[in-house]
TrEMBL record:
UniProt entry keywords in alphabetical sequence: Signal
Signal sequence, renumbered to the chain: 1-19
Lineage: Bacteria, Pseudomonadati, Bacteroidota, Cytophagia, Cytophagales
Protein's name in the database: Por secretion system C-terminal sorting domain-containing protein
Tree of life domain: Bacteria
Keyword Signal listed: yes
Amino acid sequence: MKTLFTIAMAGALSFSALAADANEDLRELSAVNSKYKKINVTLKEGVGSAKITILNQDGKNLSQRKVNVKGESLMVPYDLNSLPAGEYQVRIVTEEEEVTYTVATTEKPIPAEDLPLMAYGKALDDHTVSLAVIGLLEPGVDVKIYSSESGKVIYEEHIDQPEAFKKNFSFRDMTSEDIYMEVTDVKGRTRTLFF
């Protein structure tokens, strides 16, 4: 009786080891990568027929596709731009195996050149204004100061300061309310400041 029990236990262990190896085989033959809101599922030769399912955090099926890998690796892209950034599951199922990957998607950052120019102005007193410019990608800022009444340039200066600077401008015959300032960096980003 002990011998029969030992043989049954050994058989169960070897079957579970084979099942674990089958899962490991599918994991070795597949890969899931994400960049921002795009997911790529790669299946290598040897997978055969498979079903790929994309699930949200709540387990809701968002997409399901059947593929057949013949001869060479297959890459299946998914574009999740219409969905919120977060964690998603990718389930790959064959006739014998199943593996689930968890991937995180993120928003694509806005390129620095697409961000607005960060220039700030402040009236220090009736005849002095302060200009602060931060986050420059390259040195070089053109500052033009206009008369609010005539719209004509009354002062202009090119400032070749890298990254950031702060400068005060004073006027004898005008108040800070009589002027406005236009600031343009070398990338062409412009900001108009009123005081």
